[in-house]
Design a protein that fits this description.
single chain; 153 residues; mainly alpha; globular
Length: 153
Amino acid sequence: MKTLARSSDKSEIASRLATLRADSRRRWGRMSAHQAVCHLSDSFRAVIGRKEVRPRVSFLQRTVVKWFALRAPMRWPAGIPTMPELDQVCGGGTSPAEFAADLRDLQVLLELVTTEPKAFAWHSHPTFGRMTDDDWLRWGYLHMDHHLRQFSA
């Protein structure tokens, strides 16, 4: 299973991220590539406590859904709803500014969450609840992979 904890997997994600362009065409969803960059940054900000997101955790989500999302050998499907606070299309997420600067912000956040020792404490995932370091780095890989595939990166 790929994870940001493994340097080769992190390098793969970073390389794919570097190929993303503001005008990259989406294969599904409503976000532009620039909005997806801001969405990914907001998601990392939320789980390290730099952006407030209202929890929406149920027993089923923090057990069964979390296990499938992090452990099942399949890609995340298109069409998973985005939380309002992390939704750049509906205005709850950080608005895109300048693509290169927003991309650099995401690259800095990627470094921050993968550097040991951690300079932050993980917050609960708004849907999955509490997670281990391994869970967070698996989630980070899968979430970035999902949106990079959205733009063929």
